[in-house]
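Quick note —
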Amino acid sequence: MADFEARAALAPDQAIFQSWMPYPKHLLPETDPTSFTYLIDQYFRARTSLGLSAGIAPGQGTLTSAAGPVANAAVTLTGVPLTGSGAPGVYSYSDVLPAGTQYVVFGARVATENCSNVALPAEFYLANFTLDAGAAGQLAADFSNGLTGWSIWGNASIAQIESGMLHVQAAPGETMGLNSDSLPFAAAAAPYKLSVTATIPAGSAGAGCAIAVFQDSSVIEITRAVIRIAPQPIDFGSQQTDATGTFVFSLATPAGPQVLWADYPGSESLWPAASSVLLNPTAPVTIVTSSLPDGTAGTAYRQPLGASGGRAPYLWAGGVMPPGLSLGQDGKLSGTPTKPGSYALALSVVDDSEPAQLAGTALSLMIH
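Predicted structure written out below.
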């Protein structure tokens, strides 16, 4: 609930507290953090507000509540890059090996399976995989022998070995799957750390996933671990508010667009708060298509629209289209027009920035 109100900046019209137990036995005391009444009391804490400004040195923020400034409060600062830096990074995940594990398969996915909800285009480089179970053993795989021992499927624009790394590039509508052979590894119930060395090029959001599939003695999947290949957050530490609720900070200018988040975790009497600001934004999104070729009634028509700036992918929308034509969200105007005439088309595009940028235009289309 705190994340919803603080991070999404949305205030619900109603808050419903409901227990699925017919006779709840742990409602009191309200001082017990595990009781139902404590939760309700916490929700009705006084709301706080966190203002944030950056982009000029130094940055500044102010934490207040209905009672006035909130002093001596710790506010954490976190940077969330929107694109890669071009430098290698280690992405990791820790858990316990599932019972029955006899084999492990390393792999990667783009726009499919556990990685289906990513915004394309995607681009990244994979260097190696390591599964470290401590005293129980270690397993590793890389691309030093090219794709020997690996299988790739899908229709990605690029999925090839370059300088000992797998280079993956996928446009909207494309997918990619990568699996290693099943590698023997019996260390059930042992704690492990899965690490993947990957590089996200400057200007790319990564948009891929690395996986480790745990298999039983019949090489049937038991479960899998998934690591999202995306720019990693940067911890800038915390700042303390003064008597006026103000905190001041200085940050190095990011190499690419980055969202700076300030978070106040709340207290026994005050609700959490969060605020964000975009640093080093990209160029504004614009529609570069300035005219549309004529069409003919009864003849198939197809024309892609173009945009630049902002952050891909772009999402297109339009007003009423000529009969027989439709505008796809990918910006393709297509169909078979059925009625001659001159039509005015209202078109708009929104990008994937945070916050999103919007551009609009009006174009004429003649159907003969």
